Amino acid sequence: MGECKEYDLVIIGAGAAGMTAAVLAAGSSLRVALVEKNSQCGRKLLLTGKGRCNITNTRPWEELSPHIHPDAAFFRPAFMSFSNTDTVAMFQSLGLPVTVERGMRVFPQSGRSSDVRDALLRRIVSSDNIDLEYNSEVVSIDRTSCGLTLSVMRTEERISAYSLRAAAVIIATGGLSYPATGSTGDGYRLAGRLGHTVTPTMPSLTALVPEKYNFALIGLTLRNVSLSLLVDGGVVQTEFGELTFTDGGLEGALGFRVSRRAVKALTEGKKVEAVIDLKPAVPAAELKARVEREYRPGLGLDRFLERFLPLQAVRPFIEAAPSLTVQNLPVRLKNWRMPIKGFVDYRRAVVTAGGVSLKEISRKTMESKLVPGLYFAGEVMDLDADTGGYNLQIAFSTAAAAVRSVINRSTLR
Ligand SMILES: Cc1cc2nc3c(=O)[nH]c(=O)nc-3n(C[C@H](O)[C@H](O)[C@H](O)COP(=O)(O)OP(=O)(O)OC[C@H]3O[C@@H](n4cnc5c(N)ncnc54)[C@H](O)[C@@H]3O)c2cc1C
């Protein structure tokens, strides 16, 4: 083992949460190391919002909290002390103007996620009290009499290179989704070795794969439809909006919104079905009357269906319902059933559900209840959210709670 450097705070992972923690510690009296295993920081941030980065969502807590899983109450104190308004203010103070779009989603005005990453990075590298270490993977954390000691490996050499000692450590290593960005579950192992429980993880905000998936649907987006998720025959969730068929399966806002429950049910071996109502705004009786009014004998069913469906959906719809007739058409249009056989794994899932158990973390400070001085921030915890900017807000708020607690402790000493 080589040299041992001493810090007040070591932040593991320079993703959304780790970089925010560093930004909020910039200029404080803390000596901080931000340790990142990649050769650059915020790789996942660059991918967010299809390259535009949906930073946060301006909804008030009452409307935002239903989008947080599995325990919004845990997140509340962190959100109240560093809210979506604080996120916007932070980026504005970093020289990044933002704009609010449909669904109260906040994006950088430039429309570039790289500007979000760079705004955070500029503040970090211009701060005298922060050392940013790239290509450095934390492989273990040990409790010692003088704090926490971290073993760090230089990623290009694959040998233990040096150690770090600090009174406080924030684990901000992310989850398991998009592992190519550096989120490979290291935080679960680090926390687990220190006695923390890691609740089972699963991909969320991911594509659901229908049985006998009709590839002719790929590329189609159905607008203003509703999707009901059935588990073991019972409806557990119904959502309204846009459904996109991709090479993975059912995606888009609707696919993603039901994916968390669907993946959980599938991993528990339950029967999962998606039922699409192609005309949710039209009551069944009205739809029946319209079909009876407009159908002319001799008109092929496929031609007639073009009045109700985008052309690309017509053939797959007919093929999915071989006994389709004009009589049962209204019922079928409101019940396009797709049994779901699986889901797309972490390689393309937007977030990881599950993680370091919230029961062992203080909701006010994000400090471990088991290991004094150990903190968590971001997706490494058993905290995730729907699409809409909520996942990044989790990263920002929890990072703020952790770093403020470390600063408060240091000023008390
Ligand atoms: C394609 C895609 C689009 C998304 N779009 C949005 C969006 O628009 N809005 C939104 O709110 N959310 C979005 N998300 C989710 C959001 O990006 C994540 O929830 C968020 O980045 C989590 O932040 P984090 O800091 O906890 O983890 P990450 O951003 O994953 O950062 C973790 C960092 O830790 C580093 N690391 C890991 N292990 C170690 C180790 N042992 N030593 C040193 N460093 C380590 C990693 O290399 C990485 O840099 C998107 C996700 C994806 C995949």
Helix count?
13
Head-to-tail CA distance between termini: 31 Å
Q: Count the E strands.
A: 20
Name of the top-level CATH class of the largest domain: Alpha Beta
Overall number of structural domains: 2
- Characterize the biggest β-sheet: 7 strands, mixed
List segments where confidence is low: pLDDT < 50 over at least 5 consecutive residues.
none
Shape: elongated
Helix content: 25-40%
Task: Give an overview in words.
By secondary structure, the chain is an alpha+beta fold. It has two domains: 4-203 and 347-412, FAD/NAD(P)-binding domain (3-Layer(bba) Sandwich), CATH 3.50.50.60; 208-343, no CATH class. 32% of the residues lie in helices and 29% in strands. The protein has helices spanning 16-25, 43-51, 61-64, 72-81, 84-93, 113-125, 186-193, 252-267, 284-294, 301-305, 311-320, 329-333, 390-412; strands at 4-12, 32-35, 56-57, 68-69, 98-101, 105-108, 130-133, 136-144, 147-154, 159-171, 198-204, 208-210, 221-231, 234-245, 250-251, 272-277, 336-343, 351-356, 374-376, 384-385. Strands 1, 2, 7, 8, 9, 10 and 19 form a seven-stranded mixed β-sheet that branches. Strand 8 and strand 9 (147-154) form a beta hairpin. The two termini are 31 Å apart. The model has no long low-confidence stretch (mean pLDDT 96). The structure holds flavin-adenine dinucleotide. Flavin-adenine dinucleotide binds at residues 12-18, 35-38, 43-45, 47-49, 53-54, 137-138, 172-174, 177-178, 181-183, 186, 350-351, 378-380, 389-392, 395.
